[in-house]
Amino acid sequence: MVHAETQASSMLSVDVAVSVAPREVRSVPLTLPVGATVRQALEASGLLGQIDGLTLDAIAAGTWSVGVWGRKERPGHVLRDRDRIEVVRQLKVDPKEARRVRYQAHGEKLPKGIHRSPKKIKPADKV
């Protein structure tokens, strides 16, 4: 029994989560030796070869960011038991700018008494 406890305490349980698309997260649970780094977890997860554009060079260049529990970390960061490594892609649009564009498209004010009517759908031509 003592031997099993010693062996279990020399291993870490971590999760590697990556945002592959908006509102889509892929998670890989891993068991790694104590002293493992973020880089080693990414390599062990197999996600580097599966997701388009996700490489260690892309992380170093800033195209992708890596964090542990939402806090940005470097690939050499030493992990602790039950850490969650999060890999996220760079934003394509500034959230403030996206909100501004949505408001301009939908939030324009019309003069009093004038209401926007729903678009009429034309019936399809019969063949």
C-alpha geometry: elongated
- β-strand percent reads 25-35%
Q: What share of the residues lie within helices?
A: 25-40%
| Poorly predicted segments | 1-6
- Gyration radius from CA atoms, angstroms: 24 Å
Name the quaternary structure: single chain
What is the count of DSSP helices, taking H or I runs of 4+ residues? 5
Characterize this entry briefly.
This protein has helices at 2-9, 38-45, 47-50, 56-61, 95-106; strands spanning 11-21, 24-33, 64-68, 71-72, 84-89.
Account of the protein in words:
This protein is α+β, with helices and mostly antiparallel strands. Helix content is 30%, strand content 27%. It is built from 5 helices and 5 strands; from the N terminus they run αββαααβββα. A 5-stranded mixed beta sheet has the order 2-1-5-3-4. The chain is elongated. 13% of the residues are buried. The N terminus is likely disordered.
Protein traits:
about 130 residues, alpha+beta, five-stranded mixed sheet
